[in-house]
Design goal:
By secondary structure, the chain is α/β, with parallel strands linked by helices. The chain has nine helices and seven strands, in the order E-H-E-E-H-E-H-E-H-E-H-H-H-E-H-H. 41% of the residues are buried. GO terms for molecular function: oxidoreductase activity.
């Protein structure tokens, strides 16, 4: 019997995708790990890892990779859409092109994967599709509006896909992480425009980028997150929805409140002067 196959996007060193890859390998999977360059996945060295260069914002790149996997295997058993693009900044200060890039990666990147993989899963009448969303797709925070919007779109699309995949016997899982330790803050950078209305909020805006990576805010270890997620989605009955990580409990409580009340609390917290050193390099 051949080994099951997982296909994972966004597998750069130090990120969630790389951690998921290692956990799937430990469970006996062949993993097609993807990123925008092979060099970005240098730490993934196991013989059962097949590295592919994939840009989820490019139709041909996604289609070519999926075609290769199906030429080499019996098919993808678990598809994990993890590739993401972090964005910090106010809506008014964000260039239109930057907003498009966020949505192209975080939302349409998943759509491209679905279009290429789900019909093939449907023909086999088996498969699991996993979308890595965010708690910010359920309740927004200031200073990262395009990221919030891209994840909200992803959540709605995934929930619709889950219903429509029922007759195909393809399972769809939405994972909504809170704060998970990764290299995201290292790769991010932010400089407030000189003419911004929000010059007085510069520290708070930068704080948003770094706070999710600190123990003070309950950040979850990447490998711990990967172990739980892989354990759940590779089980005989994967859950349709899974949320874990820092802030996830707080977000669950806020979601039960009146929407206006929840937004007022979040805005109040966002305006607080952050502690020195908690908003990146001085």
């Amino acid at each position: 019997m051949s080994k099951p196959v997982a296909f994972i996007t966004g597998c750069s060193n130090g990120g969630i995708g790389a951690a998921l890859t290692r956990r799937f390998i430990a469970k006996g999977y062949i993993v097609y790990a993807t990123a925008r360059s092979v060099e970005a996945m240098s730490e993934l060295t196991h013989e059962n890892v097949k590295k592919l260069v994939v840009d989820v914002t490019d139709d041909e790149s996604v289609a070519s990779a999926i075609k290769q996997v199906y030429a080499e295997t019996e098919g993808i058993d678990i598809l994990v859409s993890n590739a993401g693009y972090s964005h910090i900044g106010t809506l008014l200060d964000t260039p239109f092109e930057e907003g498009i890039r966020v949505v192209q990666t975080n939302f349409f990147g998943f759509v491209r994967l679905v279009k290429n993989v789900v019909p093939l899963m449907g023909k086999r009448k088996q498969g699991i599709v996993v979308a890595i969303g965010s708690i910010l797709g359920e309740l927004a925070t200031p200073f990262q509006g395009f990221y919030n919007a891209s994840k909200a779109a992803l959540h709605s699309y995934t929930e619709t896909l889950r219903m429509e995949c029922t007759p195909l016997n393809v399972k769809v899982v939405l994972v909504a992480p809170g704060s998970i330790k990764s290299n995201i803050s290292v790769k991010s950078a932010y400089t407030i425009p000189e003419d911004s209305f929000y010059k007085n909020f510069e520290k708070q805006i930068k704080h948003v980028m770094y706070q999710s990576q600190t123990k003070e805010y309950g950040v979850m270890d990447t490998d711990e997150f990967a172990a739980i997620v892989v354990g759940k989605i590779s089980s005989p009955k994967p859950p349709p929805y899974l949320t874990l990580g820092g802030f996830s409990t707080t977000w669950a409580i806020l979601k039960w409140l009146n929407r206006v009340t929840a937004e007022s609390i979040i805005w109040m917290l966002a305006q607080r002067e952050p502690k020195p050193g908690s908003y990146g390099p001085e």
